[in-house]
Design a protein that fits this description.
Blueprint: H1 3-16, E1 33-36, E2 40-44, H2 57-70, H3 78-81, H4 85-98, E3 102-106, H5 109-114, H6 117-120, E4 126-130, H7 135-148, E5 151-155, H8 160-169, E6 176-181, H9 193-202, E7 206-210, H10 225-228, E8 237-241, E9 252-256, H11 258-267, H12 269-272, H13 279-294, H14 296-316, E10 327-333, H15 335-347, E11 350-351, E12 354-355, E13 365-370, H16 377-393
Parallel strand pairs: 2-11, 4-5, 4-6, 6-7, 7-8
Antiparallel strand pairs: 1-2, 3-9, 8-9, 10-13, 12-13
Helix pairs in contact: 2-13, 4-13, 8-9, 14-16
This protein binds pyridoxal-5'-phosphate.
């Protein structure tokens, strides 16, 4: 069978299994409401545009200026052909924002994660990972294991007794790296950072937190999981994305002690063998960081929307997973049910994606709602009345 024929057969099977993903095309910017091809205006409840900065005039204008100032890109890898001053400015601002001494940007947080574990660990070291960590952390660990023969362990999701068992068993390792998401993207729950840091101190381990869903989202001023727990400055390493709350274009970074960014510049392979963040994206992200620092009320609005939406869903009779973040999952069970609900909501003008196996475990398919500071109360009311109609039609409430 030719490659093309094999791929076509597998794609057909995805369709029959109800797991085929169709891309919805937007005809305008990412925002609380946007125009979807063939659908007209929809309320978007399915984006990581947490602060509504994707189309914020200051953020867009900064990107345009950088295109004029620096052109389209570096044309090569930073250490070979030079970096731009805007990269350095962004990295200093990011480090300060998340409470670390240094940071280094990558073209995605996927790359930041992938560039971290294989670079820091060797054969005598171990990485201990939460069971529900993001795919980029999992792949980073797989890569590290294959390249460096480091040891690996996985602890049950947010189970501190299990983490302690794994740390105790790893007492002879040189470096013990505990890696966790700050906010878990499918559940919307927050890592137990105070316990994780306390255990790490007790067992002489280093803590890395992927704050992709927490940067700009958690804490009074959006500085992330550490600020949520009043622990800014106490996390050893933070990775995060620029592709969600901070402008939403693309890019990621790793932040940590002063030597970390320098070390990653020397050794991390996505840094050594791949181009820098485009200057337009770097400038937009820098403008986004400054915007958040000047407008903490955006973070407060996001948190208030999340609380209100969750409360109203419960009042309607839905059972969203409890939590404090703007990720509000409603568990429906079968994948087909989640996809059906998503389709019916789109018919009502609400865009929210259903997630099924293999993204979440079998039988735990869900609709994952995500709030944005860009939403108005009217947007939320519009979405809630659609949920009421669809939930009634499907016999869920
Ligand atoms: C926890 C987490 N880490 C990393 C990433 C990857 O981010 P990026 O889009 O910057 O590669 C995501 C994106 O979904 C994420 O949720």
């Amino acid at each position: 069978m030719s490659l093309a024929a094999r791929l076509e057969a597998e794609l057909e099977q995805f369709k029959q299994d109800g797991v085929y993903k169709r891309l919805n095309c937007l005809e305008g910017p990412q925002a609380a409401r946007s125009k979807m091809q063939g659908r007209g205006e929809v309320v978007i409840l399915s984006s990581n545009n947490y602060l509504g900065l994707c189309n914020e005039p200051e953020v867009v204008a900064a990107g345009k200026r950088a295109l004029d100032d620096y052109g389209a890109g570096t044309g090569s890898v930073r250490f070979i052909c030079g970096t731009f001053t805007i990269h350095r400015e962004l990295e200093q601002a990011l480090a300060r924002f998340v409470g670390c001494e240094s940071s280094l940007t990558y073209v995605s947080c996927w790359n930041a994660n992938e560039g971290l574990v294989p670079t820091l660990l060797g054969e005598q070291d171990i990485v201990i990972s939460d069971q529900l960590n993001h795919a980029s952390i999992i792949d980073s660990i797989r890569l590290a294991k294959a390249i460096t023969k480091c040891q690996t362990a996985v602890y049950r999701h947010s189970d501190m007794a299990d983490l302690e068992d794994k740390l105790r068993a790893a007492k002879d390792a040189r470096l013990k790296l505990v890696f966790t998401d700050g906010v878990f993207s499918m559940e919307g729950d927050i890592a137990k950072l105070p316990d994780i840091v306390a255990l790490a101190r007790q067992y002489d381990a280093v803590v890395a937190v992927d704050d992709s869903h927490a940067t700009g989202v958690l804490g009074r001023t959006g500085r992330g999981t550490a600020e949520h727990y009043s622990m800014v400055g106490q996390v050893d390493i933070i990775t995060s994305t620029l592709g969600k709350a901070l402008g939403g274009a693309a890019g990621g970074f790793t932040a940590g002690p002063a030597a970390l960014a320098d070390y990653l510049t020397q050794r991390s392979r996505p840094q050594l063998f791949s181009n820098a963040l485009p200057p337009t994206v770097a400038a937009s992200a820098l403008a986004a960081v400054r915007h958040v620092q000047q407008h903490p009320e955006r973070v407060a609005r996001l948190q208030e929307h999340a609380r209100y939406f969750r409360e109203r869903l419960v009042a309607l009779g839905f059972k969203p997973l409890p939590g404090e973040t703007p990720i509000v999952p409603v568990i429906l069970g079968a994948t087909a049910k989640a996809i059906k609900m998503s389709e019916l909501l789109l018919d009502e003008g609400v865009f929210v994606t259903g997630f099924g196996y293999p993204v979440v475990p079998q039988g735990h398919a869900r609709i994952r709602c995500q709030l944005s500071a860009g939403h108005t109360r009217d947007d939320l009311e519009f979405a809630l009345s659609a949920f009421k109609r669809v939930g009634t039609k499907l016999g869920l409430i």
